[in-house]
Amino acid sequence: MALEQLLSFDGDGAYEAFKQKVEAIVEKLCDTILSNAKTSLGSDEFYEAVRGSLHGGLVKMAEDGMVTGQVGTDAWQAFIAEWGSGSEMDEDNPELVSYKASTYWNELRSANDDAITGRPAGQYLGLDDKVHRTYGKLAGVNLEWLMAIDPEFAAWAEKVTNGPNPFKARVPLHFMRTALESNRNLIMDQLNGVLETFQFGDFFI
């Protein structure tokens, strides 16, 4: 029987070309989200490490064919930037219950409406994952309030902790959530655009 091949399709070539276009779009979207996240952080000196460690881009082409983009930071202050701290922290944080049940939490804060509070004497694990020691002289004292009324204490605290306004309650910036949500339509439009404009016909042989 005589057989005649009427049409064939270069599936591997089409897949590779399509993947490259998606990867290029994902990288550009990561750059946009990264820029928006940095802007949302503002100029607060406390978040300098977060701004400096923010990174984003294409991570890898997974075995299952997924194109993966990522924006993130390794700075521990990012937790505070996203969810706030002390009396200003976001009570809607889905990880708040876990945080309060962890070794990071100072149980004496509950008596001060979760404001930043002096710890009892001993060692404790900070959000920076370092072990710190306190002598308990300010155990149970609302340090946010003390910082506000006592300039000498505020100056001492900054010197000891080597940072600006160490016991200041900080409002949640939701810098990552804002960066993602504000670009949600752009993300969908860009990805849909690849589907709508990709020339699959170029790979028919």
Describe the structure.
This protein starts with 10 loop residues before the first helix and ends in an 8-residue tail after the last helix. The chain has helices at residues 11-41, 48-53, 77-83, 96-100, 143-149, 151-161, 175-181, 184-197; strands spanning 55-61, 67-72, 122-125, 131-134. The mean pLDDT is 88. The longest helix has 31 residues, at 11-41. It has eight helices and four strands. It folds into two domains: 12-73 and 174-196, no CATH class; 85-161, no CATH class. Helix content is 43%, strand content 10%. It is elongated, with a radius of gyration of 25 Å. The protein is mainly α.
The helical percent reads 40-55%
The number of domains is 2
Please state how the strands of the largest beta sheet are arranged side by side.
Answer: 1-2
Strand content: 5-15%
Low-confidence stretches: none
Number of helices: 8
Question: Cα-atom Rg, whole angstroms?
Answer: 25 Å
Mean pLDDT: 88
Structural class: mainly alpha
Shape: elongated
- Summarize the helix and strand pattern as letters: HHEEHHEEHHHH
Distance between the termini: 23 Å
Beta strands, count: 4
Largest sheet: 2 strands, antiparallel
